Amino acid sequence: MAVFAISINFPAPLIQLDERRFVLELFHGPSLAFKDFGARFMAQLMRYFNTEKKDDLIILVATSGDTGGAVASGFYDTPGVKVVILYPSHKVSFLQEQQLTTLGKNITALEIDGTFDDCQAMVKKAFLDKELQSKIRLSSANSINIARLIPQTFYYFEAFKQLPESAYKTVFCVPSGNFGNLTAGLIAQKMGLPIAHFIAATNSNKVVPEYLRTGNYIPAETIPTISNAMDVGTPSNFDRMLDLYSSTWNTIKKNITGGSASEQETINELLSTYKKHTYILDPHGAVAKNVLEVFLEKNNNFRGVVLETAHPSKFIKIVESVIKDKIEIPKRLEVLRNKKKESIFMTSEYRHLKTFLKDRFV
Ligand SMILES: *Cc1c(COP(=O)(O)O)cnc(C)c1O
Q: Pairing relation of β-strands 137-140 and 21-25?
């Protein structure tokens, strides 16, 4: 209970756009992305279980944009914990990068010359490296860590609590990359929450929507997009999703519909939602809203909840250029603008990461 209260000390308001459209705002935490729910909860748990240990715990994490900021802020200045964040160079927004690279103290950012999938592959190799594991205490903080998924189930309940009574069935539309967020929804449903259906929404990195459509899972190279936190070609929670359905495509596709939005569709959606509802989405929320619209068009007995996963100001350049209006940057993000970036540049070869970890922590 204490862990829960300390880590999730910010709201998740449900905003109604019209009778059939809702946005669940998950960006009211310190790093302005939904990753705060999982990262802060996990950080508190690890802090609790780590207090008696002699050696430092090294948290190794790959980020496609927002995980790094949330994990860094969750573990910042925690005694006995060091955080190493791998992020793809030039593939995160300016303010996302500032969140990772300006904290200092126990947080180190490795700027990788590669994609998010390269970063994730390096981290996974480290966890399988017996020699490294025998020398340092390593732990993961990615959404493969169940301690991140558990607190993410909470806000599905929180959304339901805020929904008005209605005859419509409710679909949750989840903008997805590694599919931790969606998997948490599936777990909430298994716990008994009466969610009628899910939509797995992606940008052009659409291996899961393709799987749902065809039954074939074909991991792909990452395609860079404006919804960069979802630029994932081999989603790490896919196996877990399948496992919840005993790996049966026929059952899984009855509960989850897939859909993807192109860059142009994402931009159009951002603009039309702003014009219609004076609501400013971020590019990730815009992907989900676009995919939801396609679903609502075909299923008129449904209403939909879009999970809005980041505050639009994290992507201020693109959002302002689309809506042709100024948006407000919350103070906790604004203060990062002029801080000095510190990162260690590295190629995506695993041996460099290994050498770095051994030199620094053994
Ligand atoms: C991480 C992230 C996602 C994707 O979430 P997954 O759990 O990896 O599917 C979507 N939107 C934003 C803003 C994110 O930071």
A: unpaired
